[in-house]
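cron nightly-structures :: item 1 of 1
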Amino acid sequence: MGGRILLVEDEANIVEALGFILSRDGWEVRGHGNGNSALDEIERLKPDIVVLDVMLPGRSGLDILRDLRGAPDTAELPVLMLTAKGQSRDRDLAMSLGADAFLTKPFSNAELVATVRDLSARIGASGGR
């Protein structure tokens, strides 16, 4: 595996844990914890995949996803949404806004790695973003 992942998550312990798991799988992982500046960080970093929490300070992950899908440069950027909420309406809304995958916390390490690998395989199959 490999490539760059941006974790947009405001809980430092989750960023640390996910970063460890994904870096062990060969990814370069960066974290960002503020919804207000997440789009700027995505533009600056140009990640291959974004892992985006639904609930963030300043701006929700769903609003950020909506903006990503509305911009030509990020319309095809693979986005994995995370939420602590187990509500199906969050999942349905995220998928309707264009999320590529969705995981509900808590999830297993294997589930996270498999989902990211699947997103990466889709990037490769389509020739990149």
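cron nightly-structures :: done
The domain at 8-85+96-106 is CATH 3.40.50.2300 (Rossmann fold).
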